[in-house]
UniProtKB/TrEMBL annotation:
Keyword Oxidoreductase in record: yes
Protein name listed in UniProt: 3-oxoacyl-[acyl-carrier-protein] reductase
Family, per entry: Belongs to the short-chain dehydrogenases/reductases (SDR) family.
SMART domains linked: PKS_KR (SM00822)
UniProt keyword list: Fatty acid biosynthesis, Fatty acid metabolism, Lipid biosynthesis, Lipid metabolism, NADP, Oxidoreductase
Molecular functions per Gene Ontology: 3-oxoacyl-[acyl-carrier-protein] reductase (NADPH) activity; NAD binding
Organism: Chlorella sorokiniana (Freshwater green alga)
Known pathway: Lipid metabolism; fatty acid biosynthesis
Catalytic reaction list: a (3R)-hydroxyacyl-[ACP] + NADP(+) = a 3-oxoacyl-[ACP] + NADPH + H(+)
Subcellular location: Plastid, Chloroplast; Plastid
Keyword Transmembrane: no
InterPro entries (UniProt xref): 3oxo_ACP_reduc, KR_dom, NAD(P)-bd_dom_sf, Sc_DH/Rdtase_CS, SDR, SDR_fam
Annotated residues for binding of NADP(+): 56-59, 134, 199-203, 232
C-alpha cells in the first residue's frame, strides 16, 4: 500500500516535472521536448550563416575569423583602421571561399565611426546577426611611465569600442530577437601583466562587459561570450622583443604560440553553431594551457 502510494506520488511528481518543463519550453517558444531534440540534431549538422561584422579584420586573428565565417557562406563586413589594401584582400578571399564581403574603414576608438560602420552594413545587408569585437591595440609600458594618451587610446579602442559596437549591435539584434556577440579579450584580462596596465584593464573590462551583455540580452535570444587568447602568432606578438620569447614559451605548457586559425575555430563555434545557443556570458581561454587552473 505504502509502495503504491509512493509510486503514485512519484508518478505525480514526474507529471509535475514534465508540465513545468513544458511550461519552460513553451516560454522559450518551443512546444514539445521531442521538437527540441529534433531541432537540435537537425541543426547540429550545419552551422548557421548570416550578416557578420568582424572589427579589425584586415590582419591577424580578425582576418582568420572573417575567413572562417566567410567560408560558412556568411556575409562579412571586413573592418580596418588604416590598411585598406589588406582588408580588400581579405574580402576577395572571402568571396573565393563562397561568402560575401564588404570593406568598411572605421576607427573603433570613435563613436561616430562605429555608428557609420553599422549604418553601412545595415544599408547594404539589412541586419546584423553576428558581431565579433576583435579590433585591439597595445601601448605597452610600465604603469609609472604610462602617459595619459597611452592609457586613453587603449581604453578607447579596446573597451569603449567594444561597448559602443555592442550597443549598436544589440539594438538591431534585440528587434530581431536573435544574435551572437563574441568579444576577443585576452588572458591578460584574467591574470594581469606587468607593462600592460591599460590593456589588462580594458580586457578585464571586456570580460565583465561580456557577462553584463549576456545577462541583459539572454531573454532576447542574444548570446555574448568572450574568447581570451594567450600568445597568438600575429603582428601584435611579432612586436615582442626576441629576448623575452624563450621565457614566454617556457610558461606555455603547449610550448608554442597559437595560430589565428585556432582562435577563429572557437569564435566560429560561438558565433554560428546552433550547439552554442545555450552558452552565454562565458570566457574561454585559448592559450596552450597557460592559465589553466
Ligand atoms: P593585429 O595583428 O595587430 O591586428 C589588429 C587588427 O585590428 C588589424 O586589423 C587592425 O587594422 C585593427 N585595428 C587596430 N586598431 C583599430 C582601430 N582603432 N579601429 C579598427 N580596427 C583597428 O592584432 P591581433 O594579434 O590579431 O589581435 C586581435 C585581437 O586579439 C585584439 O583585440 C588583441 O588584443 C587580441 N589578442 C591578441 C593576442 C595575440 O597574441 N595576438 C592575444 C590576446 C588577445 P589595420 O590593419 O587597418 O591596422
Amino acid at each position: 500500500m505504502q509502495t503504491a502510494c509512493l509510486n503514485q506520488q512519484l508518478a505525480g511528481a514526474r507529471v509535475g516535472m514534465r508540465s513545468s518543463a513544458s511550461r519552460l519550453l513553451k516560454a522559450a517558444g518551443v512546444r514539445r521536448s521531442s521538437t527540441v531534440s529534433k531541432a537540435v540534431s537537425a541543426s547540429a549538422l550545419q552551422l548557421e550563416s548570416g550578416v557578420c561584422i568582424v572589427t579589425g579584420s584586415s590582419r591577424g586573428i580578425g582576418k582568420a575569423v572573417a575567413l572562417a565565417l566567410g567560408a560558412q557562406g556568411c556575409k562579412v563586413a571586413v573592418n580596418y583602421a588604416g590598411r585598406k589594401d589588406a582588408a580588400e584582400e581579405v574580402a576577395q578571399q572571402i568571396e573565393q571561399l563562397g561568402g560575401e564581403a564588404m570593406v568598411v574603414g572605421a576607427n573603433l576608438g570613435k563613436r561616430e565611426d562605429i555608428e557609420r560602420l553599422f549604418k553601412e552594413v545595415t544599408d547594404k545587408w539589412g541586419t546584423v546577426n553576428v558581431l565579433v569585437n576583435n579590433a585591439g591595440i597595445t601601448r605597452d609600458t610600465l604603469m609609472m611611465r604610462m602617459k595619459p594618451e597611452q592609457w586613453q587610446e587603449v581604453i578607447d579602442v579596446n573597451l569603449s569600442g567594444v561597448f559602443y559596437a555592442s550597443q549598436a549591435a544589440t539594438k538591431i539584434m534585440g528587434k530581431a530577437r536573435k544574435g551572437r556577440i563574441v568579444n576577443i579579450a585576452s588572458v591578460v584580462g584574467l591574470v594581469g601583466n606587468a607593462g600592460q596596465a591599460n590593456y589588462a584593464a580594458a580586457k578585464g573590462g571586456v570580460i565583465a562587459l561580456t557577462k553584463t551583455i549576456a545577462r541583459e540580452y539572454a531573454g532576447r535570444n542574444i548570446t555574448c561570450n568572450a574568447v581570451a587568447p594567450g600568445f597568438i602568432a600575429s603582428d601584435m606578438t611579432a612586436a615582442i622583443d626576441a629576448k623575452y620569447e624563450e621565457q614566454i614559451l617556457k610558461g606555455i605548457p603547449a610550448g608554442r604560440y597559437g595560430q589565428p586559425e585556432e582562435v577563429a575555430g572557437l569564435v566560429r563555434f560561438l558565433a554560428l553553431d546552433p550547439a552554442a545557443a545555450y552558452i552565454t556570458g562565458q570566457t574561454y581561454a585559448i592559450d596552450g594551457g597557460m592559465t589553466m587552473q
